[in-house]
Each structure stands twice: as C-alpha cells, then as structure tokens.
Amino acid sequence: MKTIYILWLRELLRYKRSRVQIIASLGQPALYLFALGFGLGPVFMKAGNGSYLQFIAPGIIAMTILFSSVFAGIGLLWDRQFGFLKETLVAPVPRLQIMIGKTLGSVTVAIIQGLLVLIVCLIAGFRPANWAVIPVALFFMAMVALVFGALGTAIGSTLQDMQGFQLVMNFLVMPLFFLSGALFPLNNLPKILAAITRINPLTYGVDGLRAAFLGLSHFSPVTDALALAAVALLLLLLGSYSFSKIQI
Amino acid sequence: MIHVTNLTKKFGENLAVNDVSFHVQKGEIFAFLGPNGAGKTTTIKMLTTLLTPTGGRIQVNGFDPLREQMQVRRQIGIVFQDPSLDGELTAFENLDLHGVLYHVPRKQRRERMEMVLKLFDLWERRGELVKKFSGGMKRRLEIARGLLHAPLILFLDEPTLGLDPQSRNQLWKQVKHLNESEGVTVFLTTHYMDEAERVAQRIAVIDHGKIVALGSPTELKEKTNTGSLEEAFLALTGATIRDESATSVDQMRQFGKMWKR
C-alpha cells in the first residue's frame, strides 16, 4: 500500500506544482464551452432541444477528464524519457503496485481537473437539475478517469518516444471525444455513426454524467456504469500487462 | 559478491554481450571499461534485473537476477548513466520516495536521508526542487539516493559524465570513503581512465561485447607494456571511434519479441 500511496502522492505533488499547466488545461474546455455553448445555442434551442450550454457542459467535463487522464497516463513516456521510470522499475516492488499507484494518481488529477471545469461551467450558466445527485456525477467522473487513465498507462507503456504522442492525440483521443455524443444528441444518428458511438466508452461516460446532472440519458445510468466498469477492467488488465513488459 | 558466467545478450542479430565471465569480490571497487557500444550498460542492466540475458548465468550476492529479482533489487543501489531523478520533486521528496520503494522504515528513512544528504553536501538544499540543481548536485543526489537503503552493492554507470573536475574529484572521494567505511562493493563504468585507475582495485576491459582484459591497473599496464591506463586501454581496444551498435531496427525487433512473449 505504501508504494501505491507514494506514487499516487507524487502525481498529485507534480500536478499541484504545475500551475501554468493547470490554467492552460482549462483553456480548451472553456473555449468549447463558450464558443459552442453560446455560438450554437440559438440553433439548438430553435430545433426544440433546449439549452445547448446545459447539454454540452457534461460533455465538456467528460472531455477534460478524457484528456487529463490519457495525458497523465502517457506521462509514463516522460518518465521514460527523463529517466525516472528506471528508478521505479529497478525497485524491489511489484510492477502492478507501481502501475496502480501511477494510474490512481492520473485518476485523481483528472477528477480535480473535471471539478475545476465544472466550476467554469457553473460560472458560464450551467445549472444541474438536482444537486443531490452530485455524488453520482462524481462516480461517473471517476469511472471515465479510470477507463482513460488505464488506457493512457497502456499506451504510455508501449510508446517508445515522443513522436507517437501526436499520433495518439489525432487518431485516438480526438475521435474518442468527437464521436462520443459530447457535442450532439445520440438520437437519430446515421447507422454507422450510431454504431461507432456505441463502442466508444466515452459515450457511456458522457451519458452517465448527463443522467446525473440533468436527469436526461440515452441509455440507462446502470447500463452506462456497467459498460464503463467492463471497459475499465479490460483496460486495467491491458495496462498491467503492457507495464509488466516494459524493458528499459 | 557478483559472479557472471558465460553471459550473453542479443538484440536481434546484434550480439551486445558475448560470453562474458568475471567475478567481483565483497568490498571491492571493480571498474568495467570499454568504448561506446562495447556492452557495459547492457551488462549492468542484466546484473540489475532490468534486462533478461539471452544466455549465461549471474549471481548477485547468491541470488539470480532472473528468478530472484526482488532479492537482488534489495541488495543493490544504482546510479544510472542518464539522470533518473524527478525534477518536479525536492531532493528530500526524491529520497523519501526511494526509501518507500525500498521498504526503509520511516524512522530509519529519516535518519539515513539526513546522513546521505549531509555526506554529499546537500542537506541545506534538501527542500529545493531538483530541477533547479546543477549537474554536479544532481549527480551527488543520485548517488546519495542509491545509498539510502544501505545496499551491499552500488552500481555506478558513468556517474561523472558531464561533471567538472571539482565535482568528479569530490564524488570519487565520497565513493571511496563509503567503500572503506561501510564496506559497500562498487561496480562502476567510466570513460575517464584516470578515475578508474584512482579508485578501482580491478578493471575489466570489454570490447565488442567480449572481455579483452581483466586485472589491476598495474597488471593491465604491464600486460600491454604501456605507461598509463589510457594507453593500455587504447592498446586493448584500438583507436577507432565507435558508435552505439544496436540500431533502431534491432530495438524494434526486440520490442516485437517482447509483445510476442
């Protein structure tokens, strides 16, 4: 447990000290929220779908957690590049504990980022339908962070250098966000797009957050939770396997 | 303390370490010298459980790095060729993290941290972020960290690379002091022959993955009929400039094999 704790604490200390990064990482969600929320708001309302800001706020929170957790997981690449990974891999502790400590650190950082963006959303005018279900929202935020933190660890264990980072960003992270229903409703989508959104784990995270914050969802919250739990388990196994195979 | 028998490591078609055998005695300072790409770091990685040998046998204080990884890791301290500190943490936090990873009890950890930080003149700077340290300070902190858990064997892979003569001098003084006072066995690699001659009791010279000579500095000079260790080294390994010989293609092959396993 001490190993997991100290590696979790390291992630938090690093996060706390990167104030510029914290502020910078709020820029993109704020841009999406204001540009899309207010820009497309009138069109969305005219179509009879209500407030677009209310609709996309859970999606923007999910996006923040997605980016933050994947990048924190990929932070392994930085640890590899700057040598710290060797220090942990040569220590007399099981690799699984190292992986869990690091992933839990990523998850915590991603949840904090998500909460910061929730505050930005509230300032912009977003209002949850029911404050009492905030713990449910926190649960879905944690699940999204766990799924993508584990994915980030799996990717970070496999990548050998920084060049692969852009590839992951353009061909994995951005498609995960855009094809999740974060920006558009999942009703009446073309068949191919509907199928893609259904196999995207972020879809269930966004849907779960919408259910918690607004009481609106495409699937049932139980389905969302089960889908996220199944993918989290699968990716944690994949992450542990990839991490166990790292050679320096 | 360290017994290596017919050790071999292949990366694809590249034979990085080729049938190497040697032993290091308890309390000895043993230098492993060779040109770039000769197989020094690969050998250290195998001795310290970071790489799996293709063939041969290793025993580190009676334990096999392949089958008894955790036992081996508890016996050793390592200072890597490249920096491995977390620059976003303070010196104290870096050491504390290391102490936890090596299961040093809290009270003993605090005492050892104070002792090694004072030994390497870093006690006053313990609360500063490591990214603000000079190269020499970082190197000293890495050695302090390697000693925190009181290892029986200390591996130093080119620890003075990029340091000024003053820092190098101070660093070797402290290593020698530790070897004498705590009986730590030291296995080191360096490109500075004068350093090896000054601190090491025995030297192995490796070239193209094979050990080409082994003995005390005096024995190596006598064997090659030269006046200095640098001349002896050049006589044994030639004067041609070397590159690292494992290509990226070799590394890709190794990566592919890792996934197949």
List the domain count of chain B as a whole number: 1
The largest sheet of chain B is: 6 strands, mixed
* CATH-derived architecture of chain B: 3-Layer(aba) Sandwich
**Chain-averaged pLDDT of chain B:** 85
CATH superfamily descriptor of chain B: P-loop containing nucleotide triphosphate hydrolases
| Tally of alpha and pi helices of chain B | 10
Q: In CATH, what is the class of chain B? A: Alpha Beta
- The low-confidence parts of chain A are none
Which topology of chain B does CATH recognise? Rossmann fold
Low-confidence stretches of chain B: 245-255
Task: Using the alpha-carbon principal axes, give the shape of chain A.
Answer: globular
Strand content of chain A: under 5%
What structural category do the secondary elements of chain A indicate?
Answer: mainly alpha
What structural class do helix, strand and pairing data of chain B support?
alpha/beta
Query: What pattern of helices and strands is seen along the backbone of chain A?
Result: HHHHHHHHHHH
Care to describe what's here?
The complex is a heterodimer of chains A (about 250) and B (about 260). Chain A is mostly helical and about 250 residues long. Helix content of chain A is about 80%, strand content about 0%. Chain A has 11 helices and no strands. Chain A is globular, with a radius of gyration of 18 Å. Chain B has one domain: Rossmann fold. Chain B has 10 helices and 9 strands. Chain B has a 6-stranded mixed sheet with strand order 5-6-7-3-8-9, with helices on both faces. Chain B has a 3-stranded antiparallel sheet with strand order 2-1-4. In chain B, a hairpin with a 2-residue loop joins strand 8 and strand 9. Chain B is globular and about 50 Å long. The two termini of chain B are about 30 Å apart. About 5% of the residues of chain B have low confidence. The chains are: A mainly alpha (about 250), B alpha/beta (about 260).
